[in-house]
Amino acid sequence: MATLLRAPATRAASDRGTYTYIAVFSAVLYTVLLIAPVIGGKLTAQFHLTPSQLGLLFSAELGAFSLATVPAYLWLTKLNLRTASYLFTGIVIAGNVVSGFVDSYALLIVARVITSLAAGSITVIILSLSGKTANPSRAFGFFVVFQLVMGAIILAVFPALYANTGVAAIYWTLAGLAVVCLFFVRCIDGEALRSGSGEPRSEASAAVVPSSARIPVGKFVVGLAGVLMFYIALSGIWSFMAAISTGSGTSLSATSVVLSAATVAGIVSALVATVLGDSPRRKAFLLLGYLGMAVSVGLLFGGPGLVRFAVAAVIFKFAWTFILPYLLSSLSDLSSNGHVMNTTNLMIGTGFAIGPIVSGNLIESSGGFTGMLVLGLVGVLASLVCAMVIQRRRSMR
Fold it and tell me: How high is the pLDDT of residue 342?
């Protein structure tokens, strides 16, 4: 009896440690992507960059963040996760410190790519560990909400705080934040993803994850397609949200206020998903979120005025941050194999990269936003179909 009582308590303590690790690392390491609007002007002035050079630098960082998935196939289930976390966090710290000292554009690209590869490798750990918890939807909720909170803080504080400093001060601040992460590495079980190790996450998970942990290939491919289309639609539309508004005659200042309100809505919805966690109603939550996202895209057609744009932007942000934890947990339910979420991370990065490029070309070729919005709406609905297909019958306690 004592052993039976101890097991759930130990499991709960392990999950709390994992949640803490996810919250801290996702907040700090995603600053690699979030600082772009803050430091773009400083980098241009300091290194005399052209717009194409600045774009190349940011694209290289984002690409490296995503491509960290590829080498992870070799080490994810073999290395102790604590050891890997210390190693990659150390590289992030060193990379940010070096980035503050280099005075060459070429060397800066090298430093940022290496730093992003390390940060992306920790993201692979975060996503894989999230799928191993007793409540994956809650874990993915932490992953989303702390990124959004940090993003809001950075965009609100960094421009004023570093107004009179060089770009080095920002990079060194990021190095200092990464040092703080080192104190939270011990929160996780270093052996959680070792090949052949680990037990079923919970009674609920045991009902949906076969003991052999074999991946249902067909559903896995459909799920990956759903994540890819979701991020293509999301990034393609969100990248041009301000352009849609100003193109309809709304002032840039009013547009900025609306997008700030939408960011708050996104934080609230991610918090809601985190609090709700896994639920037998996950399919209904996904359906509700996707339909809300589709409605918001529909509201953007025809040059929306300020009020209609505000409604569309708030619903869009609320819906996608609500969907994401449940979409990711749907993928993690397909198998306890750590490489499932590793591959999902590759789809996220690929979708992020494809969306803005395709949308930009559609806008240029048509001279308007209709083609881009049609593509986004099709992507949302196609992702919805995929998300419904991969749902598995769950027996929740």
Answer: 80
